[in-house]
Amino acid sequence: MNNILSVSNLGKSYSAFQLKDISFSLPEGYIMGLIGPNGSGKTTIVQLLLNMLQRDSGEITIFGKDSIRHETQVKQEIGVVFDSLCFVEDWRVSLVETMVSGFYPRWDSARYHSLLEQFGISLNMKIKELSRGTQMKLMLAYALSFEARLLLLDEPTSGLDPLARSELLDILQEYVENGQRSVLFSTHITTDLERVADYLTYIRSGDLVYSGRLDAFRESWRIVRGDINALAGFPEQKILGLRRSGGAFEGLIAAEDSAVFNGCILDMASLDEIMIFCGRS
After folding, report:
1. Last residue of a domain, which of 198, 214, 230?
2. How far apart are CA 43 and CA 53, in angstroms?
3. In whole angstroms, how far apart are CA 83 and each of 127, 133, 167, 202, 229?
4. Chain segment 92-116, per-residue pLDDT in tens
5. Are 89 and 194 found together in one domain?
C-alpha cells in the first residue's frame, strides 16, 4: 500500500502552544479524518503541510516527494478547501476559472463546468450571492478541476445544513473511488467522519493521541455505566472522564478492560463520546 502523504516527527512551537512530534501516514485511495478540540493543532498541521508556516522540526513527504524541495511540483496536485471563502466575493462565478486556471497546467475546463452544472451553480451569479453550502461546492469544483491527487479540507462542512453536508460527503467518497486519490479532512463534526473516513488522526493539545484505522480506534473503547453503589468495587483509575449523576456513574474504559467491569452496562463509544470523556480526564 503506497502512502500519498507521510508526516514524521512534525513540530511547531508558539509562545503559548506547541505541536509535538506528530507522525502519521495516509495511504492512496482513502479518507483520513483529522480531529481534536479547538486549539489542538489541526489547522496548524494543514498549514504546515502547505508550507504556509515554517516547521520547527520533522519531515513531510507528499506523493513520495519532500514537500519543501519539491513544493511547486507537489502543489500542482493538491486541492485545498478551507472553511472560509478563498475567492473575491464580488467576482461572478464565470470569473473564477479565468483567475485560477493559469496556475494549473492540467486545468480541465470541461471538468470544471461539468461540476458547476452538477452542483447547480450559475456562471452569472456573484459569489457573495451564493449560500455558504454553494460557496463550499464552488471551492470544491475548483479543487477537483486540475487532477488533484490529494484534497486537504479544513472544516469544510462547518456551518452547512445537513443536506449540504451529505452532498459534500458523497462527493468525497466518489473522489477516492479510483484508489489513486486521498483526502485529509480536518473537522470537529465527527459524525461526518464516521460516515466516510477510513483512517483517523486524533490530536489533543498539540500531542498525537492516535493515528490509524478509524474502526480499530472505536473498537478499542467502551462506555461503561452502572449503579453508583457498585463503583467502589471497580478500579476508578481505569475510567476516563468518570461522571457521577444521581444514583449512577458512567465513563470511558479501554475495551480490553471490559471483563473488569462485569455486571456493568458496556456500549460502543462514538467519536464524540471518546473525545468528551478523554477531555475530562
Report:
1. 214
2. 11
3. 15, 11, 16, 19, 47
4. 999 999 998 888 888 999 999 998 9
5. yes
